[in-house]
Amino acid sequence: MHTVKARLTIACCLVVTMCPPATAEPAPSAGDVARARAAVQARAKALGAATARLASANTRLDDLAAEAGRLVEAYNGQLVRLAATQQHHAIAMERLQAAEAKVNETKAAVSMLAAQSYAGMDLSDPMVSLFSGGGGFEGYLHRAAMLESIGKEQSEKLKQVRDTQQVAAVLRAQAADAYNEQQQAAKQAEQFKAVAEAAVAGQQREAKLLEAEKAEMEQRADAARTRAERLARERAAALEQDRLNRMGGAGSAARWMASGDSAGDVAANWALSQLGKPYVWAADGPSSYDCSGLTMRAWEKVGVRIDHWTGTQWTSGPHIPLNRLKRGDLLFYGRETSDPGDIHHVGLFVGRGMMVHAPQTGDVVRVASMWRRDLVGATRPR
Fold first, then answer.
1. Of 191, 217, 234, which closes a domain?
2. Structurally, how many domains does the chain consist of?
3. CATH number of 61's domain
4. Whole-prediction pTM value?
5. Which one, 45, 93, 99, 140, has least CB within 10 Å?
6. Which pLDDT tens digit goes with each residue over 274-286?
């Protein structure tokens, strides 16, 4: 009995010895990284949807702007036709006024002639006409014949004036109708133009809102990518640290280099572990950085000391052609290279045309494309 117990005790000890206790999974966990990458996909999808909505809104805006332009030009055409109609109406009114003046002038002449010849007597009365001059009955016949001739002449003139007046009245009516029609058309065109311009303004507001939404989505997608990258790097570093600890010894820059990484790899990997930390002017860690503060601390991890200034970081090592870059090389941005004081930004090359950098106030340490218009060159510190 005692022998069996002893054997069981020895077996348990061997199991414990051969199977060391499980250690906790290094943080961040694989699940954390997976969830961060899922968030990247979700935000990228939302960004794609926002981009599609913005493209559709811009297409609609182009269509509305074209329609508004057409209506504005139609309105301009109506104004031109209205001006011509107004001119024709004015000419017709001048002709009408001239004709009416002629009628009044002729009427006045006839009345004056009758008054002067017969002193205001009514020549339609035969008795008055018979005794209103010398010559008796024969004189009456002579004066009657003369009045008839005068009457016919004046009647013909009055008929001509009346005809002219009627023509002018027709012209005036036609001009007035055209004027009123063009007035209505111009008013309607102006209303259409106002509606079109209001639609364009509304679409512009919608496009601006969608642009703001897209910008926010881009920012959130960038933040998600940065967080996912940071978690992945932190996990890789934690796993490597765990491996080094099991090998016996702390994970130092020398240990990284002994495992095959170059000094630039170490600097780049460390900088990537700082993703998401805020940009603060003149800060050099550990909770915030500016651009040259981040690069200074990254190279400090491999024992290379450089100043906290882009001016001297630019001259901290040989200048490297852009087609021969290695991870950890410093990328500089400015107006020119002959004056280091003109260099205003620096980042660390991490491969495939990308860099890690601390961009600006209000932003965080993030991964971005190295290709910018103000890129002036690269340096490999030593």
1. 234
2. 2
3. 1.10.287
4. 0.39
5. 45
6. 999 999 999 999 9
